[in-house]
Amino acid sequence: MTRPITPEPRRLTVGTLVAAFAVALLIAAAWFWSQILMLVFGAVLIAIALRAGAQALHNHLGLNIKLGVLVVVLAVIAVITGGVLLAGQPVADQFSQLVSGLPESWDRISSWASDNTIASAIQDQMPSSDQMEESASKLASSLPDIMGTLTGVLDTVLGGLSSILLMVVVAIFVAMDTSVYRQGALRLVPPRHRPRAGQIGDELGTQLGRWMAGQALDMAIVAVLAGVGLWLLGVPLALLLALIAGLTNIVPIIGPVFSGGIAALFSLSQGLDTAIYVALLFTAIQMFEGNVLMPVIQSYAVQLPPALTIVAIMAFGSLFGFAGVILAAPLLIVVMLLVHRIYVEDVLGDADRN
Asked: What does the alpha-carbon distance between residue 259 and residue 250 come to, in Å, rounded to a whole number?
């Protein structure tokens, strides 16, 4: 009777050890240079968008790609500048009106709570408007400490703005000469793997471009729905609040909650009932977007499983901070594609899945 042949255990080769060391080195670099990696990744995303706009101008108007990139950048700057000039003063006036009306709004909330059994129990723990004014006077006495905190916040904001500016500059150069940077990146890959690396890199660019196109359409539809709803409810600055709703919708879960909260806060100047209607409006928009709009868009763009998206927000947020939360969706696309192409297909040899 023949004994079963047991496969010999794999021996650790020098190549395996080098590959493991390279992976560990990449993980360490991602940890220590997380901010730089996020800036580079953000610049790549912006470059893809700029390149797509420039390519459209080249196809329809015959513009040179480099000139098309500059035209797209100038158009974006013009739109942002025009929006700030048109909405800056109304926003300041509305914010001043909102602050001055906070005590009255608080009294309305307290009055509504007194008529509600559950809310009345909570009301006993809530301060009155007089107590709020007293707290505000105490807060004013600690103004020097607050100014110190605001200085730190201002430094953080200025640092963030400088990082965004640097990211945009890098994106412009990458969008103008994409082939140069692509070839430079491929030179870092062993020659026998360069064709496969180039194929995966091109697919990454295509997938990220499709995701951004689908996300832009989703953001535009959400902004239109929010704008129409806020206008029908008579909320001031409906256009600005709709733009905020559209822009923040790029961050799953967190963005809609933030924009809905801002809109409800601004609508308090119109009364508590209006604020409740605004909250219901944003809830309805998100239900429509999650159950109808996004499935249709993802069927043409890139489909991201909801559970993995939530895990990605937590994981990339803990690794890269707030930038990781914002870029969680495109980072998830990169990870999913790399795992599928490199591990599932190349390592496991399973090339049947799409």
From this structure: 11
Burial of 87 (0-12, 13-18, 19+ CB in 10 A): middle
Cα of 93 vs its chain's centroid, Å: 29
pTM of the model: 0.71
The sign of the torsion formed by the CA atoms of 176, 177, 181, 182 equals positive
Q: How far is CA 280 from the centre of its chain?
A: 23
Where the chain has pLDDT below 50, the residues are 1, 7-10, 119
Which among 251, 274, 273, 278 has a CA at the least distance from the CA of 262? 278
194-251 pLDDT, tens digit per residue, is 898 889 889 999 999 888 888 888 899 999 999 999 999 888 778 888 888 988 888 7
Q: Are 268 and 233 in contact (CB under 8 A)?
A: no
What H or E segment, with its residue span, contains residue 278?
Answer: helix 272-288
Look up tokens 């914010």; give the residue. Answer: 95
Helix axis angle for 34-61 and 14-32, nearest 10°, is: 90
d(CA 307, CA 318) in angstroms, rounded, equals 17
